[in-house]
Amino acid sequence: MSDEGASPPARVRVTAPRPGGAASPATGTVDRALPHVGAGAPTSDIAGVYARSLIRSQLRLAIVFAVGFVAATALFVLAIVLVPGLDDSFVFGVPVSWLLLGIGVYPLTITVGGLYVRAASRNEARYRSLTEEE
Amino acid sequence: MNPVIGYAAIAAVALASALIGFYGLRISRTTSDFYVASRTVRPWWNASAIGGEYLSAASFLGIAGLILLQGAGGLWFPIGYTAGYLMLLLFVAAPLRRSGAFTIPDFTEARLESIWARRVTSTLVIVVGWFYIVPQLQGAALTVRITTGLPSWVGSVAVAIIVGVIVAAGGMRSITFVQAFQFWLKLTALAVPVVALLLILGGGEPAPQLTPAEAFPPAAGPAELDAYRTVSLMVALLLGTLGLPHVLVRFYTNPDGVAARRTTVIVLVLLSVFYLFPTAFGLLGRAFAPDLAASGEADALVLLLPGRLVPGIGGELLTALVIAGAFAAFLSTSSGLVVSLAGVISQDLLGGSVRGFRIAAIASSFIPLLVALTTESAGLAGSVGLVFAFTASTLCPMLILGIWWRGLTARGAIAGMVAGAVLSGAAILGGPLFSAAAPALRPFLEQPAAWTVPIAITVTVLVSRADRHRIPRGADAFLTRLHVPEQRVR
């Protein structure tokens, strides 16, 4: 999951218009940037491209993790409902189905949260390394 | 129940909160200290404070009561309360911290460059805050009535006064310390009784009133839940957390966006640990105190169970601890809400001075008091759930789209917030009336989030699209600021 969210900045590294680099799909940006090359202004336009791609990759990351969490929770609950006998087997006098629903989702929440923080920081580190190369 | 325990526990919590509050007063001197604790609170402190502020009467008393009353349906509430912080982490935490705004209306104005969008947001924040304080005061009324035998209104009035005074005196800095203390108090106050009860019950005495099969009938189990209601509740709790004013203001006290994320993960851990205990109380209650559900006192389960199961002085001490924790819950959530409301009211109406903050703090604790005194509690967890549904339909779409979509315009945001407020407000307030006329609509009115949130988002997007040429000029620069990591100090 995290790799998928982290890939967009890598793509930018390949196609983003560096000074002198022309073969880019984002031609509009390049055209506007070119007249300023001598003035040192393109840095800000390129910075804009980098920033937009950072925002896109962070949004994709957030959506992937949110959808992943909801899907995993739904599957877990479906399993509790569908696996036979969980309502009738008791641990400490409580049905296993109740215990699973009461406890099971929290470890998932913490795991997803921790993985997301690492992935989001990686996106930011990549953005930093791109902008500090300038 | 011995009323002396109740008095002693309540007095001890109020005194401890006031002491920590006044200790904080000595180091909160500037306006920035008052509003956001000068943004220098460490992640662990801040996470404890967020937990302290978030765990309200609904968490401390309401969840156990709901599990006792409804069965497995009640288990979904703590899951939603916790997962709401996951959504907050994914979509809001770091960008919001980087926005540099003090309050949600500040954010709206900076993002949308519109004073009207700000005014609509401020109004919603104040409405949400007031309606969230009301159940806290009702919880206090219940606790005081059950534990001391005094009339209900005494509890509401006492909490409103204590909160008003603490907030007006100390501002955010002192509140951060008070909240952090109160988180650990609340956790102890549920964990110790649960462990003690389990140890005592492990000896087989006293015997449960119901057999396991009677206490946990499959009809009230996870498999028999209404799918629409569960999904709609989850939409409300997952997305509603994003928009709660007292939750958001707390993120401004992180030093930077990365710290805001780290803080949120710690909050996830703290909440996950905490919610095991109200869940345990609820499950114990189903076997050992089912009569409370019949008598309509389900919300008092946490307060009454230790005294019922543990004889003598041990039971009285555990009861005192639980009462103290319950009061910490009312005080901390109300004071967090009053801080954020006072921030909004004083900035919009009173010029943003420290004096204005104090006046606004007093006002924001007394208006909900009037509502609490004139209305009847309809289940703590349930009424807080409705506030989440309202927030999810109003402030959440504006925040998420404002943070992630450059195409959001002021008109789009206002249209979406008004649409969400009107629809969810009508469903919540008019629900009993409408569903008497058309019983088939009942679940949709009682849990409106699953349809009001999509409608609010759609309205926001469509109106913004139609209004495309009014995209704020600074939108790109502002979005960049939200998402680009802070300069590292070298």
Question: Could you explain how this protein is built, in words?
Answer:
The complex is a heterodimer of chains A (134) and B (490). Chain A has 134 residues and is mostly helical. Chain A has helices at 2-15, 27-33, 42-82, 96-103, 105-132; strands spanning 90-91, 94-95. In chain A, helix 1 (2-15) packs antiparallel against helix 3 (42-82) and helix 1 (2-15) runs parallel beside helix 5. Chain A has a two-stranded antiparallel ribbon with strand order 1-2. Chain A has one domain. Chain B has one domain (3-380): Amino acid/polyamine transporter I (Up-down Bundle). Chain B has helices at residues 3-27, 31-36, 43-54, 57-70, 76-91, 93-99, 104-112, 115-148, 152-202, 212-215, 227-243, 245-251, 257-288, 291-294, 301-309, 312-349, 354-374, 380-404, 410-437, 442-446, 449-466, 475-483. Chain B is globular, with a radius of gyration of 22 Å. The relative contact order of chain B is 0.18. The model of chain B has no long low-confidence stretch (mean pLDDT 84). The interface between A and B is large, with 42 and 41 residues.
Strand and helix layout:
The complex is a heterodimer of chains A (134) and B (490).
Chain A: H1 2-15, H2 27-33, H3 42-82, E1 90-91, E2 94-95, H4 96-103, H5 105-132
Antiparallel strand pairs in A: 1-2
Helix pairs in contact in A: 1-3, 1-5, 3-5
Chain B: H1 3-27, H2 31-36, H3 43-54, H4 57-70, H5 76-91, H6 93-99, H7 104-112, H8 115-148, H9 152-202, H10 212-215, H11 227-243, H12 245-251, H13 257-288, H14 291-294, H15 301-309, H16 312-349, H17 354-374, H18 380-404, H19 410-437, H20 442-446, H21 449-466, H22 475-483
Helix pairs in contact in B: 1-9, 1-16, 3-9, 3-13, 4-13, 4-16, 4-18, 5-11, 5-13, 6-13, 6-22, 7-8, 8-9, 8-16, 8-17, 8-18, 8-19, 9-13, 9-16, 9-17, 11-18, 11-21, 12-16, 13-15, 15-16, 16-17, 18-19, 18-21, 19-21
